[in-house]
Amino acid sequence: MIRFRKSIIPSSIAPALRVPLVLAVIWTADLAWAAWAGIAVLQLGMLAGTVLILLGNVWLYRRITGGERAFELALGITVFFSLGLGFTLLSYLVLTLHLPLADRWLAAVDEALGFDWPAWNRFVHNHTLFHTLLVAAYRSLGVQMLITLFALPLSGMVRRNREFLTATGISLLLTVTIAALLPAESAWVWYKSGEPVAPGPLADFLAMRRGGAVAVDLRDLRGIVTFPSFHVVMAVLLAWASRGTRFSLLSLVINGLMIVATPTEGGHYLIDGIAGLAIAAVSIVGAQRLLGPAPTGRAATAYGDTAMRG
Predict the structure, then answer these.
(1) How far is CA 228 from CA 50, 64, 171, 279, 298, in A?
(2) How many domains, in total, are found in the chain?
(3) pLDDT tens for residues 90-108?
């Protein structure tokens, strides 16, 4: 028999009350910007229905006795889906500012750092096994995020789950803000590498900048940010989220390779990755400050911080 808590706002999960407000602010900004730019946002009904279902699950599991882990899972999926989609849409809309491309500056910084992008690109493609490992690591991002979204809450790591979600939200805000000010096509385009540049993202990027886009379909959004590298940001956050667990070494190896892969597999400049590392560090510190001191001793055990370890 399902029993409901007397209080629907347990102290350990009260921060979840901020979620609808945060999502409302982000999506209001998105839709207001789209209206100002004269761009239609397609599939809003699908988005609203999905978010309402997810928020309904968050509300339900918050009230059910013993539903903390299911609550954390529902919360994580809701936040990740809504924030990710919201900020990805915003990364499209900021291109309507038509700010100058930063590729020349990014390439100059790489040169000043002594990084020869074309030479590195040739080296990677001349070593088949190494290239294959980099491709696999770079493409593992989606799978890793999905595993993390399920593993942390279902293993009872409540604090870790909140840290990961908060840091991801901060990093998305910082990444899109910087990308708005310093838009760039990609190192592939700048160096005319001859590599098959993904036509969808580049076409979307150019259409938004040139004013050729009249609508954006939420089902077809892609990663179009060059500077900073969000792959690097997430590589750090994923490795950080797995710290102290039996999977931490594997996560470090995979995400280390993902960082190395960003120039050739993502068309990034070296400085893109360095900026991604900085954003990840700021996001981690910011998340820990926002959430306050981590519980210790018995409180940590009750809060789930010892789960999935050893």
Answers:
(1) 30, 41, 10, 8, 40
(2) 1
(3) 999 999 998 999 999 999 9
